[in-house]
Amino acid sequence: MKDPDAAGLILASPGSMHRGLPSAFPEAGRGDMAQWGRAMVAEGRGKELMLLPMWPWIMSAESVVDPLRPGATTPLDELLARYRGPLLVFCGAAGHDARLLPGARAAYERSPSPAKRLEVLEGCDHFYVGFEDRVVDFLKEWLAKHVPPS
Fold first, then answer.
1. How much is the pLDDT for 72?
2. Which stretches in the chain have pLDDT values below 50?
3. Distances (CA, A) of 15 to 5, 7, 8, 53, 126
4. Calpha distance 121→133 (Å, rounded)
5. pLDDT confidence of residue 57
């Protein structure tokens, strides 16, 4: 798969596709989110997205309600197994990103793209603080190679 309208794909701190509420989601809000998700599913709106309050993620209602149902979401590494366009994957190796790193590596390894690159930033966390110049440099280099100015 290579979308003719996409010059390439950049994944910053990708992890595996998550099912169910994230393990670090506040315990106090779990019940309300599950109840809201169940109501949406009962109304036939299971594919609609829910914005998780105080959290930077969105999830479908069915993913919140039934996190173990097989096939509800396609794992990122499976999606990338079909992607043949230029691919840049980058991730920190510290903090929260250390938990995302296996998913980032798996996604990178599954891609058959002949133009793929993985950048692992040792000592860097999810927010890239202190690594901004390094990230900008490899992004500019990658974009110049794969998305040349017209």
1. 56
2. none
3. 25, 22, 19, 20, 11
4. 12
5. 76
